[in-house]
Amino acid sequence: MKLRTAFGAAAAVTAVALALSGCAQSSTAAKGGGAGDVKTVRVFISGDTNIQKLWTDDLGPAFEKANPGYKVQITLDLHGEHDAQTMAKLSASVAQKKDPGFDLVDGGFVPKASAANFLEPVDSSKISTLADIPADVVKAGGTGGIPYRGSSVLLAYDSKAVPAPPKTLDDLLAWIRANPGKFTYNSPKSGGSGGSFVATVLDKYVPADARQKMTVGYDKSLESTWDQGFATLHGLNPYVYQKGVYPNGNQQVLDLLASGQISMAPVWSDMFTTAVANGALPSTVKATQISGPSFTGGAAYLGVPAGSPSKDAAIKVADFVLQPAQQAMIVKGISGYPAISLDKLPQEVQGKFANADTNNLRKGYFDSMTKDLNNLWDQKVPGK
Amino acid sequence: MTAEVEARPAVVRLAGRAASGRSRGFLMALPPMVLIAMFIGFPVVLAFGFSLGFTGGLNRTVALIGQNVHAAHGLAPTFSAYAEMFTNARFLGDLFVTVVVTLISTVLVVLLALGVGLYLKFSGGLIGKVLSTLAVVPLFIPVVIASWAILGFYSANGFLRSVAAQFGLGFPVWSYTLVTVVIGSVWTSLPFATLLVTSGLQAVPQAMIDAARDAGASFWRVVVSVVVPMAGVPIIIATTFTAIGVLGSFTVPYFTGPNSPNMLGVDMSNYFSSFNQPQQAVVIAFVVFAMASGIAAVYVWANFRSAKESGAV
User: Fold this and answer.
1) Model confidence, pTM
2) I need a labelling partner for B209 at 20 to 30 A (CA). Which of A195, A338, B264, B298 fits?
3) Chain A residues with a Cβ under 8 Å from any Cβ in chain B
């Protein structure tokens, strides 16, 4: 009996401890700030393992090497699964004026956090390299967003099935109708490549001034300009893979392309390059950009939480990754686009982008507009 | 009982021990209760308040970040978030699909589990053992992996299509349809239901079956009038567990289902993250919660009945 009580108590205590620790994200972050004479910058990444690898293998060590006395610590939130919690943490840290637990954050929610004033405002007086980046890109990230890499969506096609790929959006739409079942894109809510295709079709009908407003801010009244585009997308249903199947996620589209079930699809430039390099996509699959309008691309933003105790060190890191040598690492490591203009990069890196205009990426919609776009697409396009 | 008659001081001592045992029992039950109250109960109350438009206090952040939030004015709750969802054609369609998929999957699971259990009870032997072992296998395969496998198996270039094509036949493509959602739901729910139903059927005394047989009952008569009613409680429990599990499933419909209409589990995730409408997500959650509570009531009733039968209540 005694023994059982003891076991019971031990089990209860373990359960509490497990439950408590289970609530926390796995993180090795130690106490930040100036521990001794080593300054630690805690970088929080909300994204995929390729971004984690970029920081742990390339950017982090390079910064530590160039700046003795600094230490870069990386925490990953895989696929941004805890973005809502991270935002809540940021908001709580601002409200209570306390350390949020990280000093530099890379994630899709940075523009939103910036709009809510959770981030330290930055400009080219604090980060001189910001001046090298197109003003529109910086503006879309809000006052606290620091664009540091980019990628765009391309049209991937199997050159065995499609010897002459479409060059314009109109050609592409005509090709889809002429080749039923051979094209699809992932639902915009599940990944950016499908989202870019949708945005591009919508943009065919959106006036330029309305589009500009929706790029840098949220205006629900302008959403009526999307109606024509959604009608076009809805009209494609019978011609899309399996008469209207839109897979969930960028990767599922690549899988369909690899197995030859479809011959053409919008894909992320970096995912495509990596998939061809590691053999996940056959070498007959090629990628091209269309025009009129082109597929959108976008920047990934860094942000410094307003509550961070080592803001200066974090800004130092942000400034560091915007320098040409580190921008070249992004190009080599994850096939990303540089944020600064190409002519500042080494010659061999410039050659990689012969077909892509990295400085003139057509921007996606503002974050909150994208959420509404996802919602409206879901209501208006599939399954009817 | 005997202690009461034989020695009165012992009664007092026993009562005292029972009381201390009770308080010790309460103390031991306290940590999980506190844990549930703090980490589940409290957030549920908060979320319910949020769905009724109370956007202040601890709900302030989520209301600030979310889009399309309906806020109550003052202390009177607003039902406009519920009204919005119940006039939304997509939500109503998804609600219908969720109910239908749950019903079909649950019926299939219970029938399959009964089939395996009855075979084991009446025929037994190697085939019975193999069947009951195979039915438990899905328990050891992660749902994500199983979902991908099911998606591939029924896809346009999947196994069944390939085999059918060898004979010049066209097998339908089931990937990204509700058919694969039902197949996946049955796959994930079958092991647990089989374990429960099989053990329930095994517990039916052989003497009862023999008695019925001696009285001239046919096999089906024995099954319908003796075996299934006697194992009624475990079968009902298996049914409720399966139904609640399928009702709230996410992985299977997310990976293998169509874009629209799909099940409410997927909707909740979409509304919360993809559409950034947390209030609407909470409304869907409470609708699912209400349905699950209805099923749970049956479970409680079945448990109560079985406790009554065994004389515990």
Assistant:
1) 0.73
2) B298
3) 5, 8-9, 12-13, 15-16, 19, 23, 83-84, 87-88, 91-92, 112, 116, 187, 189-190, 242, 244-248, 259-261, 368, 371-372, 374-375, 378-379, 382-384
